[in-house]
Design goal:
Chain lengths: 140, 395
């Protein structure tokens, strides 16, 4: 039985519409052999929770270029309330250093800044998928 | 994936359904247990397949169909299949974004599947996922295939109703008489019907149908503008009138037998003590499962033979009591082929060899769920009494 590929949601919440970055990440993860559920920008938090539930996502990648990262703690709360605290969340884009600690405190696994190497993103998503599946196995 | 979670999925728990689908994609022991659990409950949903060329408007049409079905109070599950890369195995599953407007509705469950190298337009697990949605109680299951060429017709085997999407302008009238995908349609939908070529596409299809031998059962040709909703009501009405609706491979009496035998095993002290669980049943058959735990292990470090016999006997007891008459074991033999370790999942499948008014002959096969290894075989003879099983009186 071959290992199931990582399932990753790549999405944007809030009002920012700059989605070039999320497309680049989607293509990169696809080329690394992952199954990417890509959405256009402007998703609601409730929609992302529903998506993660139905798609049994291992990792959610949030792209944020225009202060949308400030609503990510709300997403983390919504995921916890839906029983999805095992799902790993990463954030990529423009996140000021003073906000990064807040995101990590809210449960975000990793924040990627401009200039991050795509290979590092891939390596991290693979590691986080393994972590999520271990958490899931423990709760099963 | 444990049995409790499987049953939560069957009760409609969304997170459990999401995880059960992943387990079905993985294959292996969990997938087997889920298939067994759904077997007795499926056959209710109307399964609608939507196929057609890439970019033909399948996802947008599915979105419009979901809206029409929800307006009529029906719950809808969608299986959206997208291709995996033949080089890396990766995939971008983007179809559900075009079904976006329904994403906050709990009456709709959408799951994207990557084809993972499977040819034919579906994914390997698609049939199992359809059965799971059906067993979980969705009224309609819509299956959207990968963008299909001329011969990706696998959907024929799984759908009650097959919609072939024909966007305008893809070819001349010779395309319409070719063999393959156009032959499987129960309904043709000409999408993007606001484009100039759409009337010609519809008339080419009708001309093709006029050449068919069987002129009594011609599929309708509908023109739809899915983005504006034009023509969608007509399509939904056609779908709701399909005569095959809900008649998909339901096993006679299976649901009744399952309900009854669940009651029996719930009252069985030995089954509770040793951890036997019913996963499927029909008249004359029962399938149980158990996880081998420390308490089942003998001094030799393997599963105790008496536990195996108890396990098989429980399955046999349920199978022979599934006809509404009390039956009791009078003779049984077991042969054991393979030793069993702690942690293994075992399946016992009891089936009826023969049965007369007084005597029944039954066989139980015990095997390991993870690799189907044969563990033990039991043959038993039962004596049938002329009164109902005792447990049945309590209901």
């Amino acid at each position: 039985m071959a290992a199931r590929p990582p399932r990753v949601i790549v999405t944007k919440i809030g009002f920012d519409g700059h989605d070039r970055g999320s497309r680049v990440i989607s293509a990169t993860l696809r080329d690394a052999g992952m199954e990417v559920i890509y959405t256009p920008p402007w998703q609601e938090i409730a929609t992302v929770v529903k998506l993660a539930t139905e798609e049994d996502a291992d990792v959610i990648g949030i792209s944020s270029l225009a202060t949308d990262h400030l609503i990510i703690p709300q997403l983390m709360d919504a995921l916890r309330n839906a029983g999805l605290s095992d799902v790993q969340v990463i954030v990529g884009g423009i996140v000021p250093a003073k906000d990064e600690a807040r995101l990590l405190e809210a449960g975000v696994a990793r924040v990627f800044h401009p200039g991050a190497a795509l290979d590092d993103v891939v390596t991290d998503v693979i590691a986080l998928t393994a972590k999520r599946r271990q958490l899931q196995g423990e709760s099963a | 994936m444990d049995t409790a979670l499987i049953f939560k999925a069957l009760e409609g728990d969304r997170r459990a359904i999401g995880r059960a689908i992943s387990a079905l994609e993985d294959g292996g022991a969990s997938a087997y247990a889920i298939r067994q659990a759904t077997a007795a409950r499926q056959g209710r949903a109307h399964v609608i397949g939507v196929t057609g060329p890439p970019g033909g408007g399948k996802s947008t049409l599915v979105s419009a169909m979901i809206r029409g079905l929800r307006e009529r109070g029906m719950t809808v599950a969608v299986v959206a299949v997208d291709p995996s890369s033949p080089f890396t195995g990766g995939a971008v599953l983007g179809d559900r974004i075009r079904m976006g407007e329904r994403q906050s509705d709990d009456g709709v469950f959408i799951r994207s599947l990557a084809s993972r190298g499977h040819l034919g337009g579906l994914a390997t697990a698609a049939a199992d996922v359809i059965d799971l949605f059906d067993a979980a109680g969705f009224d309609v299951v819509i299956v959207e295939t990968v963008g299909a060429g001329q011969s990706e017709v696998e959907i024929t085997r799984f759908a009650d109703t097959r919609i072939v999407v024909c966007p305008p302008g893809l070819g001349d009238d010779v395309q319409a008489i070719k063999a393959g995908i156009l032959e499987i349609a129960d309904v043709f939908v000409v999408t993007k019907a606001d484009l100039p070529d759409s009337r010609k596409t519809a008339s080419d299809l009708r001309a093709m149908l006029a050449l068919r031998k069987d002129q009594c059962h011609l599929p309708p040709v509908l023109q739809v503008v899915a983005t504006s909703g034009d023509g969608v009501d007509k399509l939904v009405e056609v779908l709701l009138q399909r005569p095959e609706r809900g008649k998909r491979h339901a096993v006679d009496g299976a649901q009744e037998a399952y309900r009854q035998l669940s009651g029996f095993i719930a009252q069985d002290n030995v089954a509770n003590l040793l951890g036997f669980e019913l996963v499927a049943a029909a008249k004359g058959t029962a399938t149980l499962r158990m996880k081998v735990q420390r308490k089942h292990i003998n001094f030799n470090g393997k599963c105790h033979g008496g536990i195996l016999f108890s396990f098989g006997d429980m399955a046999l007891g349920l199978a022979c009591n599934s006809h509404g008459k009390l039956a009791t074991l009078v003779d049984g033999q077991m042969s054991i082929s393979t030793a069993v370790d702690e942690g293994d999942w075992l399946i016992a499948h009891a089936s009826e060899v023969s049965r007369s008014r007084k005597i029944g002959s039954y066989q139980v096969r015990i095997f390991r769920a993870s690799d189907n290894a044969h563990i033990a075989l039991i043959h038993g003879t039962v004596y049938v009494l002329d009164r109902p099983p005792v447990g049945a009186n309590d209901e």
